[in-house]
Write a structure and sequence with these properties.
The complex is a heterodimer. Chain A is an alpha/beta fold. Chain A has eight helices and twelve strands. In chain A, helix 2 packs parallel to helix 3. In chain B, the strands form three sheets. Chain B has a five-stranded antiparallel beta sheet with strand order 2-1-5-4-3. The chains are: A alpha/beta, B alpha+beta.
Chain lengths: 225, 475
C-alpha cells in the first residue's frame, strides 16, 4: 500500500516511516503542510497520515484543501493537542480517523488497515462469513456450522465489526469507538470481558477457534491460525 | 394563578409605589387647600353678615320696627348679594327681598346655609345662601344672608371632579409606569438572554450598547469588559494546556515509538522482549495518567463547554451499563439499572459518560463478590441526580472530601490498579456542568450521586440540540 506521512517532528517521522516500511508499505514523507498537500494531490495514496500541527499549513487546512480538490484519500490525523473537542474538529475538516499522540504503533497499523479496507469496500454485503461462522445482517442472526448462536444486540455489533475486519488486528480502542461509540480510556479492560463472552458463544465446543487474541495489540477473527 | 410578569417586576413595583405616594400627597394637599379656602371665604361672609345684623339691630332700637322695615326695603332694592327678611312672630314677611321663610331648621344666632328662589325677568332659579337669624325683641325675626351660589357651585364642582382627577392621574400613572418599566425590563431581558447564551458556551457574545450613555450602557460596558477578560483568560488557559499537551506528548511519543521499534526487532520469546513490553505497559499507564490530568484541567477550565448539547441521561446510563454490566457479572456482582423517565440536561455527553464510567468502575472495583451495584436516575425538584450505589467497602466519612483530590487513593485500594484520578475527573466534570458530586453511606457501601440542578438546565437550555461542537467548529 502507498502511504503518505506528513509530520514535522523528524524523529517521529523516521520511526513512523521505518515502521510502516517494515510492515511492507510504500511510504512517502513530507515535513510541512504545503509539501504534504502537493504530494497528496499529485500522487495516488491509499492513506495519508497527517499531523495536526504543521509548519506552513496546519493539518486541518491541508485536509480541507485536499477535500476541496475532490480528493478522497483516507486521512488519519495524529495530534499532540488536548483533545476534548479536537477530534470533532479533525473529523469535521474531512479526516477519517484520529489518533492522539503518544500512540502505540500496533494501534496505528490496525487503524490504517481499517481505513484502507474501507477505501475498497466489497459490494454491499448482507451476509458475512469467516470459516463456518455466518452472520446474516438482514435477519440479525448468527450461526456456526449448523448451530445457531443467540447474540445480544451489542454482541451482534461486536461480532459484525470483527467480521468486517476479518484477518485484521482490531484494537480495544477501535472496538470501544466503533461498537460502543465511546472515545475515552475505560481504565479497566471492559472490552476483554465482552470478547470473552462472545468467544464463549462462538468458539466453545468447536475444534478450531476463530476469535484470537493478538498479544500486545488486540483481537482478530480469522478462519485458520 | 400568578400575576402577569409585568406586575412582578421591580421596575413596575417602584413606579406603582411612587404613583401611590404621589396621589396620596396630591389628594392631601388639595383637600387642605379646599378646606382652608372654604373656611376663609365663609369667615368673610359671616363677618359681613354680623356687621349688617349689628347695624340693623341698632336701627331697630333707634327707629323701631317701622324704621327697620324702611331700611330693609331700601337696602333690598339696591340688589347685590345681600338678602333680608323681616317677619313677625308668625313668620309672615314684613319686609325684605326673600319671598318667604326658607325651608330650614330654625336655629337663631348660628350660621345656616339654605336654598332660595330668585326671580330674574320671570325666570326663577334655585340659589344658595348663607346667613343668620336674629331674634328681635317683640318676637320679630330678622334673617340676614348673602348669596354664596357661585362659591357653592365652585366647591361642588371641585369636590365632584377631584376623585375623578385623582383616578385619571392614577390610571395615566400606571400606564406610563407600565411603559417605563417595560422599557427597563426589555433592556434587562436582553442582558439576561445574552448572559444565558454566554453561560451556554458562546463566549464571543457581547451585550449591545445603545450609545445613550445611561446606566444600562455603563452596566453593559462593564459586563463586556469583564467578558473580554474572561475570554482572554480562557484563551490563555487553552494555549497553556495545548502547549503543555504538545510539549509533553511529543517526547512521550518518541519514547513510545522507540519502544515499539525495539519490540519489533526482538524475538517475542526473548527475555528482553518481556522487559521492554512491560516498559511499554508502564509508559501507557503514564500516558493514561497524563491524559486524565489534562482532561481534568480542560474540564475545570470550562473548555469543553463548547460541546454542550441537550442530552438524555438515560442514554448515558444505558450505554455505560451495557459496557460495564458484564464486567460486574464476571466479578459475581448483581448489576442493575433502575428504570426512570426522561432526564434531559444540557451537557457534554462524552464527559458525562466518562464520569459515570469512572463511578461504575469504582463501584465494581470496590465491591466484593456477591455484592450489588445499582445505577439510577432520580428526578427531584432540585434537579436530576445520576446515582451509582454499591454494597462495597464504602468510603469513611472523614475521607469523603479527601478522596476527591487528585492522586488520593485510600489504603484499601492501594494495591488495585488505577490512577487515583477517577473521582477527580468526576468532580471536574461536575463543576463544568454546575453539578455536585455527593458521596454518602449506602449502608453498607457507597452511594455516589451527581446532582445536576434544574437552573443549570434552564440556563443552558438554548444550547443547540444537535451536535453543537460541529456547528462551532464550522464557524
Amino acid at each position: 500500500m502507498r502511504i503518505l506521512v506528513v509530520e514535522d517532528d523528524l524523529e517521529a517521522q523516521r520511526y513512523l516511516v521505518n515502521g510502516l516500511k517494515e510492515a511492507g508499505h510504500v511510504v512517502d514523507d513530507a515535513d510541512d503542510g504545503e509539501i504534504g498537500l502537493s504530494l497528496s494531490l499529485s500522487r495516488p495514496y491509499d492513506v495519508a497520515i497527517v499531523d495536526r500541527m504543521l509548519p506552513k499549513m496546519d493539518g486541518l487546512k491541508l485536509v480541507e484543501e485536499l477535500r476541496q480538490h475532490g480528493n478522497v484519500t483516507p486521512v488519519l490525523f495524529l495530534s499532540a493537542l488536548s483533545e476534548v473537542d479536537d477530534r470533532v474538529k479533525g473529523l469535521k475538516a474531512g479526516g477519517d480517523d484520529y489518533l492522539t499522540k503518544p500512540y502505540a504503533f500496533v494501534e496505528l497499523l490496525a487503524r490504517l488497515d481499517a481505513l484502507m479496507r474501507r477505501r475498497h469496500p466489497a459490494a454491499v454485503k448482507t451476509r458475512l462469513q469467516v470459516g463456518d461462522l455466518e452472520l446474516d445482517l438482514l435477519t440479525r442472526t448468527a450461526k456456526r456450522g449448523e448451530a445457531s448462536i443467540d447474540l445480544q444486540p451489542r454482541e451482534f455489533r461486536l461480532l459484525e465489526y470483527l467480521m468486517r475486519h476479518a484477518s485484521q488486528v482490531v484494537t480495544r480502542t477501535m472496538l470501544l469507538e466503533s461498537v460502543w461509540e465511546y472515545h475515552f480510556d475505560p481504565q479497566t479492560n471492559v472490552i476483554d470481558v465482552h470478547i470473552s463472552r462472545l468467544r464463549a458463544k462462538i468458539d466453545k465446543g468447536f475444534d478450531a477457534p476463530l476469535l484470537h487474541t493478538v498479544r500486545g495489540a488486540g483481537y482478530m477473527i480469522r478462519a485458520r491460525a | 394563578m400568578r400575576a402577569p410578569r409585568l406586575f412582578r417586576t421591580l421596575a413596575f413595583r417602584i413606579v406603582f409605589i411612587y404613583i401611590a405616594i404621589f396621589a396620596i400627597s396630591a389628594a392631601g394637599l388639595v383637600a387642605f387647600t379646599y378646606w382652608n379656602t372654604k373656611r376663609a371665604l365663609d369667615m368673610q361672609t359671616d363677618q359681613t353678615i354680623d356687621a349688617e345684623i349689628l347695624g340693623l339691630s341698632e336701627q331697630y332700637q333707634r327707629l323701631g320696627l317701622g324704621g327697620l322695615a324702611n331700611v330693609i326695603i331700601s337696602r333690598s332694592v339696591r340688589g347685590g348679594q345681600s338678602l333680608y327678611l323681616l317677619t313677625d312672630q308668625m313668620r309672615h314677611p314684613i319686609a325684605g327681598n326673600l319671598d318667604g321663610w326658607p325651608q330650614i331648621i330654625y336655629r337663631p344666632n348660628s350660621f345656616i346655609e339654605f336654598n332660595y328662589e330668585r326671580r330674574v325677568g320671570g325666570v326663577s332659579t334655585l340659589r344658595r345662601a348663607r346667613g343668620r337669624i336674629f331674634a328681635l325683641t317683640g318676637g320679630f325675626q330678622l334673617l340676614v344672608a348673602r348669596d354664596v351660589h357661585e362659591r357653592h357651585e365652585t366647591v361642588r364642582l371641585f369636590s365632584t371632579t377631584l376623585p375623578w382627577s385623582l383616578m385619571l392621574m392614577l390610571v395615566l400613572g400606571v400606564i406610563g409606569g407600565g411603559f417605563m418599566s417595560r422599557n427597563l425590563i426589555a433592556r434587562l431581558d436582553s442582558i439576561n438572554d445574552i448572559s444565558r447564551e454566554i453561560m451556554g458556551g458562546d463566549l464571543s457574545r457581547r451585550i449591545p450598547i445603545r450609545g445613550s450613555g445611561d446606566e444600562f450602557d455603563t452596566l453593559a460596558t462593564s459586563l463586556n469588559q469583564m467578558l473580554d477578560r474572561i475570554e482572554r483568560l480562557m484563551r490563555g488557559m487553552r494555549e497553556v494546556t495545548d502547549s503543555v499537551a504538545h510539549d509533553l506528548r511529543t517526547p512521550l511519543n518518541r519514547l513510545r515509538n522507540r519502544i515499539d521499534a525495539a519490540l519489533r526487532r526482538l524475538p517475542p520469546e526473548s527475555a528482553e522482549y518481556t522487559e521492554i513490553e512491560s516498559a511499554a505497559v508502564e509508559i501507557d499507564q503514564l500516558i493514561a495518567t497524563f491524559n486524565a490530568l489534562l482532561l481534568i484541567a480542560e474540564a475545570e477550565a470550562g473548555m469543553a463547554r463548547e460541546a454542550m448539547a441537550q442530552i438524555d441521561l438515560r442514554d448515558v446510563v444505558e450505554g455505560i451499563s451495557e459496557l460495564y454490566g458484564p464486567l460486574a457479572e464476571e466479578k459475581g456482582l448483581t448489576f442493575d439499572v433502575a428504570p426512570s423517565g426522561e432526564a434531559m440536561i444540557a451537557g457534554n455527553k462524552r464527559l458525562i459518560a466518562q464520569a459515570l464510567a469512572n463511578l461504575v468502575d469504582n463501584a465494581i472495583k470496590y465491591t466484593p463478590e456477591g455484592g450489588k451495584v445499582r445505577v439510577s436516575i432520580e428526578n427531584t425538584p432540585a434537579g436530576v441526580s445520576l446515582i451509582v450505589a454499591d454494597t462495597g467497602v464504602g468510603v469513611p466519612v472523614d475521607d469523603r472530601v479527601r478522596v476527591l483530590d487528585r492522586f488520593v487513593r485510600l489504603e484499601a485500594s492501594r494495591h488495585s490498579p488505577g490512577t487515583g484520578l477517577g473521582l477527580s475527573l468526576v468532580v471536574a466534570v461536575a463543576k463544568l456542568h454546575n453539578a455536585r458530586l455527593e458521596l454518602a453511606d449506602n449502608m453498607p457501601g457507597l452511594k455516589a450521586s451527581l446532582l445536576f440542578p434544574h437552573d443549570t438546565a434552564r440556563a443552558i437550555a438554548r444550547a443547540p440540540a444537535e451536535n453543537p461542537a460541529l456547528q462551532i467548529a464550522a464557524k
